[in-house]
Amino acid sequence: MDVVSQLQRQFIDYSASLHREGFVDDQFTQLQKLQDENSPDFVVEVASLFFEDCEKLINNMARALEQQQGVDFKQVDASVHQLKGSSSSIGAMRVKNVCINFRSFCEAQNREGCLRCLQQVTHEYSLLKSKLQTLFRLEQQLLAAGGSIK
Amino acid sequence: MAQSRHAVEKEQSTKITALVVDDNRINRTIHRRLLSNLGIENEVVGSGKEAVDAHCSGKKFDLILMDMEMPIMNGIEATRKLREMGNRSMIAGVSSRSMEEDIQEFIEAGLDDYQEKPLTMSKLISLIRKISLNG
């Protein structure tokens, strides 16, 4: 097997594993389909926006939940809602699913539940970021070798 | 020569203009890409108020993709105001809200259509077809 075919195989297998393990869903595939020669870095650009949003929102949630005088659950919920929206738009299924649970705890004004969800969403986001960065690296290697992802 | 479904849609949509109204920059980026891929000239704003301001400044769009939850002025209020001001664009609500009463309120504000997020190419194409049918 030549280098390009090997890299192509690696890219396809890794991509499949992200779907199989639930890190991304069909919405991520839809984003990949929107990428073309006019917008060759579209998925990386959207992912970068998502990473920035996640970090900002997770920090907001952590600060709000730290408040000793009383947690403003509406504020926490607003951040979780935004994160749920962003994760749904990019196809980040596991992050989205944690957000769904998180919102229930916000509604119940359950601080312990919220803190557990915050831990989970931070963990899922870190995993996803690492996985997507690996995927993008594989894509770059494939393109540099003269292959394509289509 | 057989044309792909996408190419046919692109042909029908090249004269259509659109406004994306969403406070989430990821959604704005994706919706712009979807529209551009269909050859639809588009602009973006980040709140319902900015959409109303765009209308007041004389800008006209065939299609407005309106998010529901936004700060300053939400999509429901913006849609209502736009209709009160005589805006005749096709306004499609695009939201992740699943509560029926919220969606109903949004529709009653003056929507022509509603699509649940995330917006996909096939959902957008169904909106474009409606515009083409209505002339």
UniProtKB/TrEMBL annotation, chain A:
Keyword Ribonucleoprotein among record annotations: no
Top-rank taxon of the source lineage equals Eukaryota
The residues covered by the HPt domain are: 39-145
InterPro entries assigned: AHP1-5/YPD1, HPT_dom_sf, Sig_transdc_His_kin_Hpt_dom
Question: In Gene Ontology terms, what is one molecular function of this protein?
Answer: histidine phosphotransfer kinase activity
What does the UniProt entry say about where the protein is found?
Cytoplasm, Cytosol; Nucleus
GO biological process entries: cytokinin-activated signaling pathway; phosphorelay signal transduction system
Could you tell me which residues carry Phosphohistidine?
H81
PROSITE patterns xref list: HPT
Keywords assigned: Acetylation, Cytokinin signaling pathway, Cytoplasm, Nucleus, Phosphoprotein, Two-component regulatory system
What's a single GO CC term here? nucleus
Q: What does this protein do?
A: Functions as a two-component phosphorelay mediators between cytokinin sensor histidine kinases and response regulators (B-type ARRs). Plays an important role in propagating cytokinin signal transduction.
Q: What is known of its domains?
A: Histidine-containing phosphotransfer domain (HPt) contains an active histidine that mediates the phosphotransfer.
What's the protein name? Answer: Histidine-containing phosphotransfer protein
Q: Which organism is it from?
A: Herrania umbratica
UniProtKB/TrEMBL annotation, chain B:
Query: SMART domains recorded for this chain?
Result: REC
PANTHER family attached here? TWO-COMPONENT RESPONSE REGULATOR, TWO-COMPONENT RESPONSE REGULATOR 24
What keyword terms does UniProt attach to this protein? Answer: Phosphoprotein
Q: Spell out the protein name for this chain.
A: Two-component response regulator ARR22-like
Q: Which domain of life is it from?
A: Eukaryota
What's a GO biological-process term for it? phosphorelay signal transduction system
PTM sites of type 4-aspartylphosphate: D67
Coiled-coil residue windows: none
Q: What Pfam families does the entry give?
A: Response_reg (PF00072)
List, for all copies, the residue spans of the domain called Response regulatory: 17-132
Q: Which InterPro entries does the annotation name?
A: CheY-like_superfamily (IPR011006), Sig_transdc_resp-reg_receiver (IPR001789), ST_Response_Regulator (IPR052048)
